[in-house]
């Protein structure tokens, strides 16, 4: 048993009247002990439940992110001579995936990368408590298996294609080791919020994170301020993802040095209003996304256009949302986004091909 961890657990788990928030340094220490499992399983589970009930503070979230940065993976900045050396976009979506609405995040990434803006994503496998379809499976349905890549290979893929993925089981096994506790406690711990705030990319970037509940957005603002993250976007997205809804006004916060904007974006103003597309049969989702990339005109295609246009605008490709939508339409209609998928698929496969040596 870790006596040091027990003292920190007592602080957060003493009840509504006597519990005490951890300092940033204490939260970092507690997170390190959980990631390395210096703390016992009983202590880790108790901490997760107590912390959820107490609710984390911005100092605690910042400390947890400090530990993630110290112990976790970081993709190096894209090489200066790469075609994708622009300011990157990091898409942070809930690791427990989607279970009700059809995701278009991979199409957003492909369109944005086709326009020359690099995109970094991160996540793991099916995860409690939702057990929804995660990003890694969406890419697999599109013919891209990102699971085997080392972090070095993921960086190579980012340099070559403008698309990078940090995969929890392969690149951050310490964090993956805590997933089992989510199933056992039956609730999302504060780590689920930390994953939305985490950016595993070292180069200049804008972090886009989805959220559901307003307090999450407020936590994000305070945590970003403490950690010096000045470029960020918060999206009240579909199931807390980075995907903007079409069935309601999109609520978005955008922060850049010296400027913070609150955006209320109405799909009907751009002819894109409509119900949000249901997830339906998971096994056909890849085919539906491929149909969008091939120029389909389904409701899912409108959702993809709405999102790709927004992120092209935020990525600096267009000066307005209308301009971003027009550029997204062009990239989809001309097949450039589909070509980016084919490039991503081929480059990913090449990295995992065994070397063949010839003997003279």
UniProtKB/TrEMBL annotation:
InterPro entries: Anthranilate_Pribosyl_Tfrase, Glycosyl_Trfase_fam3, Glycosyl_Trfase_fam3_N_dom, Glycosyl_Trfase_fam3_N_dom_sf, Nuc_phospho_transferase. This is Anthranilate phosphoribosyltransferase family protein. Keywords: Amino-acid biosynthesis, Aromatic amino acid biosynthesis, Glycosyltransferase, Transferase. The lineage of its organism: Bacteria, Bacillati, Cyanobacteriota, Cyanophyceae, Leptolyngbyales. Residues 6-68 form the Glycosyl transferase family 3 N-terminal domain. It comes from the Bacteria. Signal peptide: none annotated. GO terms for molecular function: glycosyltransferase activity. Transmembrane segments: none annotated. Residues 101-338 form the Glycosyl transferase family domain. PANTHER family: ANTHRANILATE PHOSPHORIBOSYLTRANSFERASE (PTHR43285), SLL1634 PROTEIN (PTHR43285:SF3). The keyword Transferase applies.
